[in-house]
From TrEMBL:
The lineage of its organism: Bacteria, Pseudomonadati, Pseudomonadota, Gammaproteobacteria, Pseudomonadales. This is tRNA-uridine aminocarboxypropyltransferase. Residues 2-189 form the DTW domain. Belongs to the TDD superfamily. DTWD2 family. GO terms for molecular function: tRNA-uridine aminocarboxypropyltransferase activity. It comes from Pseudomonas urmiensis. It comes from the Bacteria. One of its GO terms (biological process) is tRNA processing. SMART domains: DTW.
Amino acid sequence: MSRPRCERCLRAQDHCLCPLIPHLQSRTRVVVLQHPSERLHALNTARLATLGLVNAELRVGEVFADLDQLLATPGYRPVLLFPGEQAQALVGYAQEGCELPFMLIVPDGTWRKARKLLYLNPLLGELPRVTLGQVLPSRYRLRKAPEAGALSTLEAVVQGLNVLEAPGCFDQLLRPFEALIEGQIRAMGRETFERNHGGR
């Protein structure tokens, strides 16, 4: 019999992260498009990101039929947070000198599944692409990054918002993520963690 889950954070109720999730305002609209296979992943960082931001939403699926309506939301410039040859490094709104904030579209899934989302939703491929300039090291100590600079979805959102809305800081969003990581380390045992992950 499975343990009862919190309906909000989807964690087992005795490991609910809701008390650690902040309630932060942002100029930037954050929309995470999550591949269905990620929804019940033990470390569902995309959900934590959107729960902690007032101006954010999480959409789960492979094909998003109303994407054209979403991208036409008044008051925002839609951009895709995804690497590519034409991708521009994010800079702060104060530096950019533009009054209209971004709608930051963030695909959530493995690189392969994120690319599939772009393939199945051609409108995403037409958006201007943005990336993080200087990437801070990932705090995702339980997983070996597939390449240098790889981040969880939550970390990418936090770093992007910290750049765009400087001097504002969105690091509070990382609190439930860090508690989640620590809980997993405790469950496996510190010694096993040190042996398998080198204490990263």
